[in-house]
Amino acid sequence: MNESLIRYALHLADNSLILGQRNSEWCGHGPVLEQDIAITNISLDLIGQARNFYQYAAQLINNFQKLESSKVSPPAGGGDLEGASEDSLAYSRKEEEFKNCLLVEQTKGDWAQTILRQFFFSQYQYLLFQQLQNSKDGQLAAIAEKSLKEVTYHLRWSSEWVIRLGDGTDESHKRMIKAIDELWKYTGELFEPASYELRAANEGFGVDVSKLKEPWQIKVSDIFSEATLIPPSGGWAALMQTGGKEGKHTEHLGSIFTELQYMQKTYPGCEW
Amino acid sequence: MNIQIKKFYYGDIPDDKAGGNELKDSKNPPSGGRGADWPLWEVFIRSKQGLDHKHVGSLHAADAQMAIENARDAYTRRMEGVSIWVVESKYIHASNPEEAGELFEPAIDKIYRHPTFYDLPDEVNQM
Lengths: 272, 127
What we know:
The structure holds 2 protein chains of 2 kinds. Chain A is mainly alpha-helical. In chain A, 63% of the residues lie in helices and 0% in strands. Chain A is globular. Chain B is flat.
């Protein structure tokens, strides 16, 4: 149980960290000052979630290693976990050890693409955390409950923007359609459980993400119809890209690391 | 010819200067496309239940919903409030500073309007 719990917590943390990092690229570059602040706030919320999950994962890893130190090697995919901490988990693991979905690592694109990705992800996270609140694991349940209020706001904010842009000018409508074409193929992965998600769901501390697919589609359809947008050809059955949750990432994750991990790789252990 | 020069004071912004009209015409999107085209909104925050809303500043937003959310992000990040009001700045009419003389100065020598000529019982504290 312990190892899949660690992987599961890391997966949740990685999703939030990578999207938080991506959104933070808007800081100082938002389309208007007020929206610059809004997207940066969302970044900080996400990074806050990531910290909670990483702290918990680090605690689990350190306990696990104390128990098992004499007989087995640490769980694969945990990186160099000697005395794990939230920082070591965020800054010292390698690309293939990250378990985030492909959706969150894609480039920020234009405002339409950032908005649409946030909407897809927040809708997913909203459904996920609603269930995770009932987790058998008290810590995961508590983090989900705390984060749900933030996510509810992210969902409201991004939904309104999807409607505003989709049902806005010809230009904004065109950009939303382009964003849908760009991002649609990464939505399927959200609902295809990775091995540790299956074990997490079976053991009662995780959520069966395949069950979130239908409610997610219904909500997305509702907002899309209000925004005068439609799913791309192929619709819900379109071919999907997967693999991120098992460590097989697109080229974009590496480019995030060049910023995210630069300081710790250049000056290991540096503090300020 | 009688040329009238009108100055606009803070808050007293007429429709054609308030911005935002460009967005109503979807055939001709604003060329700048930046927030400058969005109308200005005044923000009022109530810091605690029972207190009144206080003016805290202004911001740009395309509609009322966005104005409330922008205000939430700009003015309540540090738990400053429990309620937000927004109103488009063009709907606020301000007194003209040049008329301050006739508006406010007549009150200066009318101290008898202050309730300071009454003997209050000691029990009454909050007056």
